[in-house]
Amino acid sequence: MADGLQVTVLDKKKVAMLFQPTVLRCHFSTSSRQPAVVQWKFKSYCQDRMGESLGMSSPRAQSLSKRNLEWDPYLDCLDSRRTVRVVASKQGSTVTLGDFYRGREITIVHDADLQIGKLMWGDSGLYYCIITTPDDLEGKNEDLAELLVLE
Questions:
Q1: How many whole angstroms from its chain centre is CA 111?
Q2: Does residue 35 surpass a pLDDT of 50?
Q3: CA–CA distance, 56 with 51 (Å, rounded to integer)
Q4: Angle at the Cα of 122 (from 50 to 150), degrees rounded to 5?
Q5: How far is CA 83 from CA 38, 122, 124, in A?
Q6: Residue 151, pLDDT score
Q7: CA-based R_g, the chain, Å
Q8: 11-23 pLDDT, tens per residue?
Q9: pLDDT of residue 65
Q10: DSSP SS3 for 78
Q11: What is the rounded end-to-end Cα distance, in angstroms, of the chain?
């Protein structure tokens, strides 16, 4: 029981095409005998990542990130300065979509993989796989993937 909860997103950075399906894979191990609750949470970029992917990042962002190598102008900002929403949750075999995602082909498959049937413009951002168990509170309970949707 000393191992604790361990969550790992398998593809840390994923590039996918607009209107195509994708799967963000999340694996977890736990010493708990209780069923885990799986939640995928979306956080938008702090600023538009598309310009950087096309080689047009802002000089200000470049100079700031050069001064502090640990800081990323696209990823590191307060949640109050970006969009944060629950994509989907799974408890047992029941999957519940967040309000913004209702009506879309989105589900959680296997143990904790987020399957998106058709990527949309606003889907680029950070996706957090968060696992909660009632009796395994030690370890790492979340990991994240970065998804960039291209035209």
A1: 16
A2: yes
A3: 5
A4: 45
A5: 20, 10, 11
A6: 86
A7: 17
A8: 999 999 999 999 9
A9: 46
A10: coil
A11: 47
Question: In angstroms, rounded to a whole number, what is the distance separating the alpha carbons of residues 29 and 7?
Answer: 7
Which CA distances in Å does 101 have to 2, 117, 130? 37, 11, 18
pLDDT tens sequence across 37-88: 999 999 999 887 655 555 555 555 455 445 556 768 778 888 888 999 999 9
Q: Which carries the bigger pLDDT value, residue 88 or residue 2? A: 88
Q: Collapsing DSSP states into helix, strand and coil, what is residue 40? A: strand
Please give the Cα distance from 7 to 28 (Å, whole number). 4
Burial 110-147, CB ≥16 within 10 A → b, else e: eebbbbbeebeeebbbbbbbbbbbeebeebebbbbbbb
Domains and CATH numbers, the chain: 5-44+83-150 (2.60.40.10)
